[in-house]
Amino acid sequence: MVDIKRRRRGGEQPVVPEPEFTSYYGRPVLNAPVWRSPDIPGYLFLGGLAGASSLLGAGAQLTGRQRMATVAKTGALGAVTLSLGALVRDLGRPARFLNMLRVFKPSSPMNIGSWLLSAYGPLAGAAAASAVTGKLPKAGAAATAGAALVGPAVASYTAALLSDTAVPAWHEGYRELPYVFVGSGAAAAGGLGLLAAPAGESGPARNLAALGTALELVAFTRMERRLGMVAEPYRSGTPGLLVRAGEVLSLAGLAGASLGRLSPVLNGLSGAALIASSALTKWGVFAAGKASAADPKYTILPQRQRLQARAGEQ
Amino acid sequence: MSIVTDPAGETGYADHPPRMGFFTDTTVCIGCKACEVACKEWNAIPEDGLALTGMSYDNTVGLGASTWRHVAFIEQRRTIGVHDDADVLAMAEQATPGDGDGFRWLMASDVCKHCTHAACLDVCPTGALFRTEFGTVVVQEDICNGCGYCIPACPYGVIDQRKDDGRAWKCTMCYDRLGEGMEPACAKACPTDSIQFGRLDELRERAQHRVTQLHDSGIADARLYGADPGDGVGGDGAFFLLLDEPEVYGFPPDPVVTTKDLPAMWRHVATAAGALAACAAAAFLGALKGR
């Protein structure tokens, strides 16, 4: 039998006793997700970084911040390439990746995501190529605009991909996870701008990181409040540690960024911290979902309560 | 969610056979596991581990890529008026069947539910999972690219990935046998007719009759699981008669197809994408006065 008691946060005392439930020898009801780390959390993180970077790149081009634009566009291309690579690598049959595109199926976020990435990838590639070589500026500008248009969808659809499962911590969080994910992506893109672009052009990157972090933290807090006991995996064990480390790093990164206007080293460190914080959040969410699927109480108790509530209504 | 009685017709089959299903009456299951063996033999399923669990007579543990039938075994102890030092052999000699000493074994052969609203089928990005003309759900092994999405989508923990093969596998309700007018191997092999195969509408009637019969004979715990077309998955193509709460057998008590909330998920994704664009716009506007 699995030990159904969970470790709690240091010092925090349970207000109510662990609710009782029955299960089949403590075994999980769900089959565990077979998605592996670092492939899938990496895919989530890099998708967010890419999508938000495309917005930063387009804005930088519009406002004449050429070096920032080049950094953001090449960053977006690198991130989406790695992201797609991670997704393919995680397949049981990587050679059959293109089967993803044999149908168009809105009921499958992974199918829609594959179509999004197939549209976004070439746009990000053309935008980056034009920015780096300086050739075909008009086509480059069009690709930049296109990537900025599709980018937000690339950064957010992965939340639906996780939520559209029976995994309690992922499914129940479907109202807030998209905001957590785009916020985290914005923080990462802002961090990349701070890390790699000249300090004179880094104002918007700093702002984007601040807005993204705020959005992420607010959405995450709301999610935890709404989810009740199903949110436990986001706060306990290794997943909880990852999420908390992400929060600490993002706040540290923001503090450093606001102090670091005159110090390129501090600016760069802050940028790196923001990128790392985004990755930690995605890893934490991924791991929390796996933990919630492994413990039958997160599947059984909410369903039991739902049945009781329904019986009470009648 | 509207009640769907004809999933094959909804999928687009114009002229199709009636919806077929399993009714597993666990009250007559003797735990022989002939269904597990027959399933493996007919479908040529590879070995799925020969370890002993030590938890019960159940060494199959659960459904998976290479386990399409699983016999659950539950030993329930209630307050029994015997002491630890009792002579069990003498007790066995004296015991009469069904003398109600508050001790019982529950056995149940679990299988893919072939849901009316099947999450695995909905989320499959390649279309490898499809609805057959019999209303069942089957994986096309030549299409599946092993993305693994169906696995956490299933609310019952049925489908899984075969590690050495990479693809997802589950019960096909013996699609090949159904096409020939034969019953699935597990139902054919079941010596007590605990596993009954047939038209789903007939099975539901028969099951209701059986529950009434059990209630009349004083077994108040008897209840159907997965037979209600109004439940969260639109009713199961394979449903069960149980003698205890579903979770005792490892079933989720109130499963809901995850895609029921997908329209809301897409709305939040769209709003979040808009929020990200707004953040970026604000980030550049905010930097204007700083220049």
Assign the structural class of chain B, choosing from mainly alpha, mainly beta, alpha/beta, alpha+beta, or little secondary structure: alpha+beta
Write down how many β-strands of chain A occur, each being a DSSP E stretch of 2 or more residues: 0
Major β-sheet profile of chain A: none
Roughly how much helix do the residues of chain A carry, as a percent range?
A: over 70%
Helix content of chain B: 25-40%
The residue ranges of chain A in which pLDDT falls below 50 over 5 or more consecutive positions are 1-10
N/C terminus separation of chain A: 36 Å
How many separate helices of chain A? 10
* CATH hierarchy, class of chain A: Mainly Alpha
The Rg value of chain B, from CA coordinates, equals 24 Å
The chain-level structural class of chain A is mainly alpha
> What's the structural domain tally of chain B?
2
Strand share of the residues of chain B? Answer: 15-25%
Mean pLDDT of chain B, rounded to whole units? 92
Structural account:
The complex is a heterodimer of chains A (314) and B (291). Chain A has a single domain (34-309), classed as Formate dehydrogenase/DMSO reductase domain (Formate dehydrogenase/DMSO reductase fold), CATH 1.20.1630. In chain A, helix 2 packs antiparallel against helix 3 and helix 6 runs antiparallel to helix 9. Chain A contains ten helices and no strands. The longest helix of chain A has 31 residues, at 264-294. By secondary structure, chain A is mainly alpha-helical. With 291 residues, chain B is of the alpha+beta class. Chain B folds into two domains: 7-258, Alpha-Beta Plaits (2-Layer Sandwich); 261-291. In chain B, the strands form four sheets. Chain B has a four-stranded mixed β-sheet. A two-stranded antiparallel sheet of chain B has the order 2-3. Chain B starts with 6 loop residues before the first helix and ends in a 5-residue tail after the last helix. The model of chain B is unreliable at 78-83 (pLDDT under 50). At the A-B interface, helix 1, helix 3, helix 4, helix 6 and helix 7 of A face helix 4, helix 5, strand 6 and helix 9 of B.
